[in-house]
Amino acid sequence: MDQVFSNLALGFGAAVTPINLGLCFIGALVGTLIGVLPGLGPIATIAILLPITFYLDPLGALIMLAGIYYGAQYGGSTTAILVNMPGETSSVVTTLDGHQMARQGRAGPALAIAALGSFFAGSVATFLVALFGPLLAGIAQKFGPAEYFSLMLTGLVGATVLASGSVVKAVAMILVGLLLGSVGSDIETGEPRMTFGIPQIAEGINFTTLAVGLFGIAEILRNLEKHAEDRSVLGGRIIGLMPTWRDIKQSALPVLRGTGIGSVLGILPGNGAVLAPYASYTLEKKLSKTPSRFGKGAIEGVAGPESANNAGAQTSFIPLLTLGIPPNAVMAMMVGAMTMQGIIPGPTVMTENPTLFWGMIASMWIGNAMLVIINLPLVGIWVRLLRVPYRLLFPAILLFCCIGVYTINSSHVDVLLVALFGLVGYFLLKHGFEPAPLLLAFVLGPLLEENLRRALLIARGDPAIFITRPISAFLLLVAVGLLAVVLLPSVRKRREEVFHEED
Amino acid sequence: MRLKTFAVAAVALVAAAGSAFAQSFPSRPITMVVPFAAGGPTDTVARLVAQSMSETLGQQVVVENVGGAGGTLGAARVAKADADGYTLLLHHIGQATSATLYRKLPYNPATDFAGIGLVTDVPMTIVAKKEFPAKDLKELVAYVKANADKVTLANAGVGAASHLCGMLFMKEIGTQLTTVPYKGTGPAMNDLVGGQVDVMCDQTTNTTGQIKGGAIKAYAVTTPTKVASLPDLPTTKDAGLPGVQVAVWHGLYAPKGTPADVVQKLNGALLAALKNNTVKARFAELGTEPVSADRATPQVLDAFVKAEIERWRPIIQDAGVFAD
């Protein structure tokens, strides 16, 4: 324990220099801004900023890039809440209740609780990284393809809970999501699947493209069909900027649970963090005494997932810092920044470069604190943004979407796809299909398939691998349990209906 | 006939324009397309070289990542770009293997580019999980052959360097193994470190940190000479598997038809970059070094691409894989 504190002291000593504090601030601010701009994500931004890191020392460079990463996670929630547009996988869940809160004039409390919950989760997760990082990384390594498959399957079953309407429609959306997720090259043979000869989607459809189209563009189309005067997101009234005491009391437990879920899932190097907000939302909805409020502006539905998301964002540094293995595309770019600085990522970074390792951890906490300082005062500005007349707001959103999506791969095909998915999303909205389960299935589908095939390859085609490995078996049990929980109410309802008819 | 006259006239015109052009070249920033995501090993090589070339040329050389379809999207963009030297391509061994891996390539890697020069050969290493029983490469080969139905060979996806090296390895030992493909090196390395898969052959860029940290076992390096950053590691030649000779070579290209003096000027900047101390030092940490000056020439690269296409064609065809 003493060791950890002296290490943390070393880290804070390295991170709390005027230059590094400045870089941390710049990173967090830039991250917040690009997160807010729909479509523009941390990957494109970090790619643009990579050359600048040449001129910084390695710690400063990493602090700035890390700031962009979690800043973007924060900023993404802002857009999700204000204009129902998730820029990142993680903020899909936030749209469900966050945007409903905004429509009810409660954008302020939604944004503030997202910021505060994230800060709490980020602080806890940072200390987890500091205290148990190396130990946890070792345990996470026990997670093989079989375990990932079972985890993703559990996540998929949970996806039905995301829908606030019909379960049948939610299942239909999950199936469509799985289909869209299977577009692209077959991982083993390289054979293209459903690409229609378009090389730009040979590696699959981009998440941002799909999310911006289905959510953002569809939302704009829906707003435009209304009369000019009631297009604005708000009916004109704004109820308070800060959460009330009641809001905070309602959010406290979801934040705690979200932090726990996010921390655990974030450690898994196989992108387990993507499940964190979904898992938290599912849990909160199941635990709630009034699950019917979810999807209609329940603050727990913002507080839990946002905390889970940020906790996961912090603990997902564990595989990178302790093993030198990047768990996602943003971390892969940090590896690039490290190599360009002459630091070869690997298990030795911790021992050979303790200042860098602990400085980075210290900066994560500082960065989270800065995000609260940046974001709380911004809440008022963002909420005021909703007062901008819609005829001015929507062309700006459209423009940013197109620029953002184009920057992902410098590909015009992505922009055309956004337009297409926008129309699809509008159709879905009109017919009462909810896009959130579709997006989750789209993200999980490829992971599910890859890990299924990998697990079977390693086991020589023996499916018993999924039940003989204890963690995998446990996860499958959870999936079965979840399925029962999802199906039982609708079975019960049908029986009630039958009974009603008999009466 | 008229067409021919026209072509001759056009070439003459382009050449004339070219020499006038080269005087002022470069008068605006140059784009160096990297056909992979930012942060990867090829991107790192490109950025180090671009940084130094910017200083030499007095104009920014901007790295643009055009990822997708195994590097062929970025290469296609450069193949179709104006042949004025302002759009370059930094690509690795995939430039040669794509000729066989892709049946419908919208460009010809052998003829649609004007080589500027080879940049570096990144060696590959044959590695295994920590608990793997074999002590050296000979034991590894014997063990793998005896347990061909148990051993798994990881790679980072169709066409990846680890995939190519894996195919070569299986061909040389005459044994087919169960290959477990991953999407990228990160997840593959993760499962190797975690002991979920047994063996992999990957670039030093990806393996050096893990080898030094003791997270995985290393058996041999696949180049004719040892690498400075891993002095204890024998070459495949010395360790008893001389047929596994493979390096992830990187080349810098302009579109075909780029004026010769522009190519010359770019080559000069490339040579300066390869002599640059920072570039050398960073390359060394990546377990590689710049190619010698006599190999960093347009002629060598153009011939090398053709030779590598022919070398890999039978290996890829025998394995029966395609990427499109």
Structural account:
The complex is a heterodimer of chains A (503) and B (324). Chain A has 503 residues and is mainly alpha-helical. Chain A is built from 21 helices and two strands. Chain A has one domain. In chain A, 74% of the residues lie in helices and 1% in strands. Chain B has two domains: 2-122 and 249-319, 3-Layer(aba) Sandwich (D-Maltodextrin-Binding Protein, domain 2); 123-239, Periplasmic binding protein-like II (D-Maltodextrin-Binding Protein, domain 2, 3-Layer(aba) Sandwich). Chain B has helices at residues 2-24, 41-57, 72-80, 94-101, 137-146, 161-173, 185-193, 204-212, 236-239, 260-275, 277-285, 298-319, and strands spanning 30-34, 61-65, 87-91, 113-129, 152-155, 178-181, 199-203, 216-221, 247-255. In chain B, β1 (30-34), α2 (41-57) and β2 form a beta-alpha-beta unit. Chain B has 324 residues and is an alpha/beta fold. Helix content of chain B is 46%, strand content 19%. In chain B, α1 crosses α10 (260-275), α2 (41-57) runs antiparallel to α11 and α4 packs across α12 (298-319). The mean pLDDT of chain B is 89. Chains A and B meet through α3, α14 and α19 of A and α2, β2, α3, β6 and α7 of B.
Q: What labels describe this entry?
A:
heterodimer, A: about 500 residues, mainly alpha, 21 helices, 2 strands, about 75% helix, about 0% strand, globular, B: about 325 residues, alpha/beta, D-Maltodextrin-Binding Protein, domain 2, 9-stranded mixed sheet
Largest sheet composition of chain A: 2 strands, antiparallel
- CATH H level, superfamily name of the largest domain in chain B: Bordetella uptake gene, domain 1
Strand percent estimate of chain A: under 5%
CATH fold descriptor of the largest domain in chain B? D-Maltodextrin-Binding Protein, domain 2
Helix content bin of chain B? 40-55%
What is the CATH class designation of the largest domain in chain B?
Answer: Alpha Beta
* CA gyration radius of chain A, whole angstroms: 22 Å
| Number of H- or I-type helical stretches of chain A | 21
Number of helices of chain B: 12
| Overall number of domains of chain A | 1
Mean pLDDT of chain B: 89
Largest interface: A-B, 55 and 62 residues
Mean of residue pLDDT values of chain A: 85
Distance between the termini of chain A: 68 Å
Write down the overall geometry of chain B: globular
N-to-C terminal Cα separation of chain B, in Å?
Answer: 39 Å
